[in-house]
Design goal:
two-stranded antiparallel sheet, 411 residues
Length: 411
């Protein structure tokens, strides 16, 4: 007599009579309960089961509102703020629009910021992302190399964004990525070479499709791709890319182009050029001469500059923004029950030193730390101290004892 065969789930052991459905495979079976549990595991691993959130740019916000918010945190740089506000506003307005029948598709406008170190490129991008409450990631272009070489693949740019928004793919696909040091991947030379330019033009080529908008298979945890690694698909069509770089020496390209253009004009026309801030005349032609390939420049249609910071701007940066250094130190001391104040000559001394070191706004923090380090070390243990005032003499004395006093000589 032939024995009746009993089929069971190969995972939980449930029999056919206990399961609603028992799916047969080549060497086993799986019940509907285990299928549901497997689906939950997949969703938890990839976070695709999260509720997708629509991005809604408030209808009352206009580009001037974005610039006004930037004004609270970033001093000066009005041209850069205006370009950035319009580009970001148009980008998210484009996402808000529903499909229409007129066949007109609005393309996104990625942004290229050119300015010396410490002029506020990263701060502008961070402030806008925080204002709009969208995922924001900062990546450094110098770590990327062409596929197959030591370094990181360009796809790991998207891995950083995924990690920031807790692997919510829907949120990541409407985020902002700031690519810093973009000038460091400039083409090294126009002359062909035996050695490959794996960290220059090769990386630029790898960024083209990503900047334009395409489906990219991304390793969620970053690093190089390998066959056994799970990948997440991200569409970059609605991700706004903001690139920034110092482009050290690009003024020479600008000056060369301007001198060529003014031939045939009168002397007065030549004198109108502001030689102290040539960045304001920057064009895509200058960026191409510097070493970015035309295809990449074409995917960064919004080009703007940040002016070098003079003493007046540095002084305003020190005291005026909501998150200014002076306000930060005052808050630190207020937590200890101490009212901190700075004299005008102390602020002037800090500004003079920052301008002398040519480190931009970042130089202000280095100098302030050198001035305040002893006070921050000693005062918390002095319970009777209720007030502390930083004077010019005190600041000069602390700087003279610090390593910063040798910075100008060393440079």
């Amino acid at each position: 007599m032939k024995r009746h065969q009993t089929y069971r789930c190969s995972f939980c052991g449930r029999g056919k009579e206990e399961a609603l459905i028992l799916v047969a495979g080549i060497d086993g079976h799986i019940c509907d309960t285990c299928v549901d549990q497997a689906q939950q595991i997949i969703e938890e691993e990839l976070n695709t089961g999260k509720k997708e959130e629509e991005f809604h740019l408030p209808t009352t916000i206009v580009p001037q509102d974005i610039k006004s918010h930037l004004d609270r945190y970033v001093i000066g740089q009005n041209d850069a703020k205006k370009y950035l506000s319009v580009a970001v506003y148009n980008h998210y307005k484009r996402l808000r629009q529903k499909p229409t029948d007129d066949e007109v598709e609005i393309e996104k406008s990625n942004i290229l910021l050119v300015g010396r170190t410490g002029t506020g490129k990263t701060l502008l991008a961070k402030t806008i992302a925080k204002f709009l409450n969208v995922p924001f990631a900062i990546v450094d272009a110098t770590v990327f190399t062409e596929a197959g070489y030591v370094g990181e693949d360009v796809e790991s740019i998207l891995s950083r964004l995924l990690q920031v928004c807790d692997y919510n793919i829907s949120a990541a696909q409407r985020g902002i990525i700031y690519v810093d040091e973009i000038d460091k991947i400039a083409r090294k030379s126009d002359n062909p070479s035996i050695t490959r330019d794996v960290s220059g033009e090769g990386v630029q080529q790898g960024l083209l499709k990503m900047f334009e908008g395409t489906d990219v298979n991304v390793p969620p945890n970053g690093g190089r791709k390998h066959p056994e690694q799970k990948l997440v698909k991200i569409n970059t069509e609605n991700i706004l890319f903001i690139c920034g770089g110092a482009f050290d020496g690009i003024e020479r390209h600008i000056a060369q182009r301007l001198n060529t253009q003014v031939i045939g004009f009168n002397k007065d026309e030549t004198e109108r050029i502001d030689r102290d801030n040539l960045l304001q005349y920057i064009s895509q032609q200058d960026v191409k001469s510097y070493g970015l390939i035309p295809e990449l420049i074409g995917r960064l249609p919004v080009l703007t500059y940040l002016s070098p910071l003079d003493k007046k701007a540095l002084r305003r940066i020190l005291v005026e923004p909501v998150n200014s250094l002076v306000n930060q130190y005052k808050k630190l001391f207020r937590i200890e029950g101490i009212e901190l104040s700075f004299s005008d000559d102390a602020l002037d001394f800090i500004v003079d030193k920052a301008h002398e070191f040519e480190l931009g706004a970042r130089g202000l923090r280095s100098i302030c730390e050198a001035v305040m380090i002893d006070a921050m070390f000693e005062l918390p243990s002095q319970k009777g101290t209720k007030e502390f005032r930083v004077t010019g003499d005190y600041a000069e004395q602390k700087i003279s004892k610090s390593k910063l006093s040798q910075l100008k000589v060393a440079s």
